[in-house]
Amino acid sequence: MLSDIVNKIRAQRDHEPTVISLGQTWVDTLMRVPEMPQAGRFVEASTVSRSIGGSFQVLEAAERMGARTELASMMGTGPWADCIAHALRQAHIVHTGRTLPNQDNGMRIILSDGDVKSYVAHHGAESRGDADAFKNIHPKKGDVVHIGSNALMNDGAVAVHQFLSHPACQPQTRTFRIVLNSTRALRLVNAQLLETLILARPVWSMNRQQAYALAERLSISIDETPTLRVSGGFDESMHELCTALSEVLRAPVVLRAGSRGAWIRQHGEGVMHIDGFPTKATHIRSAGPVHTGALCALLAEGWDLEASVQIANAAAALSIAHNVDGVPVCPSYDEATAFIKERLAE
Q1: How far apart (Å, rounded) are the C-alpha atoms in residues 144 and 253?
Q2: What is the C-alpha separation between 56 and 60, in angstroms, rounded?
Q3: For the chain, which residues make up each domain, given as ranges?
Q4: Which residues form the Carbohydrate kinase PfkB domain (predicted)?
Q5: Quick one: how many helices (H) and strands (E) in the chain?
Q6: What is the per-residue pLDDT across 309-330, written as a single tens digit (0 to 9) for each?
Q7: Euclidean distance between CA atoms 204 and 54, whole angstroms
């Protein structure tokens, strides 16, 4: 598997690969505390760090992996929006969506004691909009459209539904690919939108918890027997979960499992386990957005799903080692492929 990827570096392409995200962005403020405060109690944070959350992390990873990147969702005006706009410029991400006057972007406060995290969120301009919010978004042949899970549960869901209902987005005629991040809060997603998402036949990228939430929402019965064994049975469980979801969704499924890699299945084919790369867990935030961004970039460049996931696994592993204030940072394409070559030589 690794040798196949190394032999294909780099894939031939006849277009400038572009990743367009319909996901939302906000500002995250992470506060590390010695313990979670009880109601009415005071606790002092040892450190405070700020980063841009949501689909920014996906697009930043895609840009570092060589793709042209566009943010198509709403932006506001105000201090949080200014912070996001600065980060977009620094990462060479073009904002092609609307800018809403007199509304700022949202923010989240994250409290972490090293074991547990708590979130307080306030949604802003990124969650606003109407059915025509994405009417000027016209992906070209070979592009990849990313749909973040955060865009499925507020006013942005109306715009996503309208976009997917356009004739150019239908799987029979579509010339671009769609990569969708599922969510553990799938119970909050409108049933009509969920049906539209399924009919669009995107690449479903998710972790185990998100996959189980999707299976529950679709009334898919999963045999939990392997997970109850003394020896574990994790691989068998992931294999069955990937198979069951792909059968019902009739679409490609990428089931991520951190250092264990990912299980993938194209509808009608067998499940394939793509090995991951063990790394020291020094991060606080998930490397899932890095994996998704790398996957989107590589698909846009013309790589097949198998090779794209393998390199995305490497990018995610390196991003954990290269984290800044606990936030994984995606490596460049050259760093990711060099990492694979090093592992191949071992």
Answers
A1: 16
A2: 6
A3: 2-345
A4: 19-322
A5: 10, 13
A6: 999 999 999 998 888 877 889 9
A7: 17
